[in-house]
Each structure stands twice: as C-alpha cells, then as structure tokens.
C-alpha cells in the first residue's frame, strides 16, 4: 500500500503555479504516492497531469454527479453529488494534505484536515490560503503548526520525515 496524498488548491492556476503542480505530481508519483484531488481544473488538473505522465495513480473526488466533470488525467473518478461537502471526503482519503494557493474551498479542506488530525503542508509562494495558513496553529486541539514549504524538495523531505515519525503509514 502506498501513501495517499490529497492536493488542494485553486481551480485556476497561473502558468508558474500550474508548472509547479505538474512537477509536484511527477515527484509524488516517483515517491509511489497515490494522489487524490477534487478532480477538476487548475491545481487539481496540473498535479494529476504530472502524476499521470509519470505513470502514477490519480483519484478525482468530484462535487457533482457527472464523471465528465473530471479532468482528463484522473484515472479513478468518484462523483459524490455532495457539492462542497466532498471536501471532507478528499481529506479523509489522505494520509497527508498539501495545499497550493486556494480560496474558500481550500480553507475548508485545511480545516477538515486539522479536525481529522491529518498533517497539512502549505506551499507559501503562490498566495491564497496556503500562504496565509503556513506556520499557523488553527486551534488548541493540536499542538503542531501547519507546515510551510517553498520548494518541491522541502515537500519531499517533510513527507519522508512524517513517514519516519510514524505520522504517515507507508506500506510498500
């Protein structure tokens, strides 16, 4: 069994953010991670594209009921009919959550990750809620902070540390 990583973020991604996310997806596939997204455009599509091109597995958890809403790089498509309620599902499916930018939907997913005791990695250099929440403690139910990073290498090191520390179960 591989680690399951949920990527959250903007449904629109400017070229630099899109390119970063494609590279993030490739890196996660090379780490043998299963990558989960909301299955649609922007950050979700870019990460899925990187995973797909590297031969990894992508899962898209859709808010609606139509599988055709998914981006072309999702290999497993799960329509939920839950609207924004699907944000809870995307987080529950993860061992770790990575936020890249993001608006209100991303903020709710970060909140769910906090409540469900999932580690949250927040990329700082693309604005949005990931940058705002980087290094923050949401409330007193957990002592650690949201983990702020700037680079792909930092993300990889954080995931490897979470595995070593037993915060993520990694079954080859």
- Strand segment tally: 7
- What's the helix-strand series? EHEHEEHEHEHEH
For the biggest sheet, the summary is: 7 strands, parallel
Characterize the overall form.
Answer: globular
CATH second-level architecture? 3-Layer(aba) Sandwich
Helical stretch count? 6
- Assembly state (oligomeric): single chain
Mean pLDDT across all amino acids: 96
Portion of residues in helices? 25-40%
**Unreliable sequence segments:** none
Estimated structural class: alpha/beta
| Strand order in space, largest sheet | 4-3-2-1-5-6-7
Please, could you describe this protein's structure?
There is one protein chain. α1 (15-30) packs across α2. The chain has six helices and seven strands. The mean pLDDT is 96. α2 links the parallel β2 and β3 (58-62). It has 172 residues and is α/β, with parallel strands linked by helices. It has helices at residues 15-30, 43-53, 86-92, 104-115, 128-133, 152-164, and strands spanning 4-9, 34-37, 58-62, 76-79, 96-100, 120-123, 147-149. Helix content is 38%, strand content 18%.
